[in-house]
Amino acid sequence: MLPDLPIALALNGFLPWVLGFALATALIPGGDTARQRLNMAYAYPLGMAALAVLLAVFDLVGIPFQRAALVGTAMITTLLLFLWTWHRNGSGSLPRLTTPAPPSLTLPMIVLSFAAAILLTLMTRDLLLSPTESWDSWMNWEPRARIWFAQGHLAPVVSPSEWLARPPGTEAFVLGNSFAATQPPLVPLIMLWEMIMLRDPNAPVLYLAWPALALSVALAIGLQLRQRGADALAVPLGAFLFLAIPYVGAHITMAGYADLILAVYFTLGVLGIQSWSDTGNRRHLLMTAVMAVAVLMAKRPGIILLPILLGTLAFMVVPPAIQRLLTKLLLAAGMFVLAITALPFIAAAVGLAVPMGDLVVFPAPAIQELALGIYPFLPLALHTVFDASNWGLFWILLGLAAISRRPGTPPRACTLALVMTLIALYGVFGLTHYYREAANTATLNRALLYLIPLGVYLITDRMLQAFRPQRIEDQQ
Length: 476
Fold this sequence. Notes:
The chain is mainly alpha-helical and about 475 residues long.
């Protein structure tokens, strides 16, 4: 095992990155330095999604999961993508990937880069030396990956009732969690790739995808701003602000949670829309389309985040007059949801009785049933945001960033998606039976993770504008 470990780690880390970079440059070619840097940030998430598709294709064709065959196919695909991109762009020299920063930014860039590197190194060390197996992983993701690794193909995992109804001799597996069979397959496929590369389903290095994906979105935050003309300080500042949030660190070090992966793909999808809006290059929407599929395949909440991606895109294509109208409607919807959750306390203050709990219940796919009602969610939301979990200064900085926006200007894609996500999550936990899930605070905190990278993007943008306003174009 030990002599094979360096090779396995390279296949787990370097190969997904190279394949993803080849895909990114094929989707969005060009020699622009800022674009190539942003492609580097997109590379690892894009590569892992491509390798998950590769595993699904092997299973569909009936090829057993052998490391040599998978690696060979991935390497040939990478080579063909690079050759195609090189041929299409001409045989000129590769773009220069480094540009000098102003001397005044050298020291803060070094300090912030060092701090971000230390944070990620410590979290990765904790993940490798003392991994904490998460409940979600063992109830939903890892058992499926272990089954597929042992069987050598994507053996069906079904619900207990379906398993009992199958005829004898039919291959099928069932897990203790009855909902596990309905969960999307991306996370267990990522785990499966790591198991196959390591030839071991038990090594802690199986979870290296989590810090790698966190690093990708941390860099993408600043690089997206850099593409818009921000100072080079944007990259280490955005990375540090994201990695310094304690709850982000918890999801990096707690092996196997799917929420961070969903947040990464959702954020990169929104950044693709932002890049298209900034540059007018429709090829950025191809990247968003890939990320949208990954969002749907990462976890069930993707069915909420996918419409937000589509809604953000639709908003960016309509005329400014309609954008202003939609902005008002969106804010009105947010105020309505807030008012409904505050209704019990308003009624109590004036001596009125309001029916509480589930009011309407109807069937819903995947979750069996959905209940709508009135719930005392407002104090629970405030407790979750400001007390139950250590979010540091995130919410305070996000509030300051929000109120500093210039009135009357249309929101950018990142701001719009953040607001829509916040309203959607508040509505889900405040107006449905998921209020009971939010009562444990952990479920709500995990859901709020989906908007954290976009919040850090907005905070980083506003901090840079506050200190160097002449260097960043204000489009918000």
